[in-house]
């Protein structure tokens, strides 16, 4: 297993720890994995322009390139809000109480939708395995897609 795979395991392991109620450990492992993946990303992209704007633009462009299939996009537009809401609930609620269980369910369903989208339709790995900034760029991009669809419908 190479370092990028190990760091991806840290990210997924952090989410798994969050799912079993280990908030601090889960968030710590997740953050360590994302930080280490970002370090590898920067090493693999020495020609990347410096600055936050250039890094953000690159992440959004990469995210869009890895989400071309319309079914995958639809699954993400539905699944990512479930993941984000579920993650917030997993962090905020007491483990194994009703709100936490609902959050865990939303988190699980959201990830299942994204995995089906990538494996069944897009045929590409989730973007975060190549670009960890996708954890932020993805929800922002998906929100923009939803807002753009809403604007087109209201016109």
Order of helices and strands: HHHHHH
Shape: globular
Give the number of DSSP strands.
0
Helix content: over 70%
Number of helices: 6
Helix-strand category: mainly alpha
Compute the average pLDDT: 92
Care to describe what's here?
- The chain is mainly alpha-helical and 155 residues long.
- The longest helix has 25 residues, at 98-122.
- The radius of gyration is 16 Å and the shape is globular.
- The protein has 6 helices and no strands.
- The chain has one domain (3-154).
In short:
Helices cover 79% and strands 0% of the residues. The mean pLDDT is 92. The longest helix has 25 residues, at 98-122.
